[in-house]
What we know:
The protein is mainly β. The protein has strands spanning 3-7, 10-13, 18-25, 30-36, 43-49, 55-57, 65-70, 75-80, 89-96, 111-112, 116-121.
Amino acid sequence: QVRLVESGGGSVQAGGSLKLSCSVSGHAYAMGWFRQAPGTEREFVAAISWVDGIPYYADSIRGRVTIARDYPRNTLTLQMKRMRSEDTAVYYCAATIYYNKNPNVKDEYGYWGQGTQVTVSS
């Protein structure tokens, strides 16, 4: 079993930065961040293997976000910078205990956090 709890969401002005955290209980093979804006599908943001630390990023956001693991604190983070209004969404932390061939596919994750709201104002 894996339990995930996100934190760090809030409001930020366009061009600003925000860091999300996800506290992890249990053991995961890989973890990721997804986001969902009102009326849209949940979309992939970034993922990382808990085993080798290799990160993956959505093309649309590459260069503006950094996903990282904090082993001692068993925490996953997402640092976002140069934020835009289109980054406004509920951000979800996700985990899988199996090898996931397609880290950008939400169906490959079996565990999800409750989500944290991020609002970017222009």
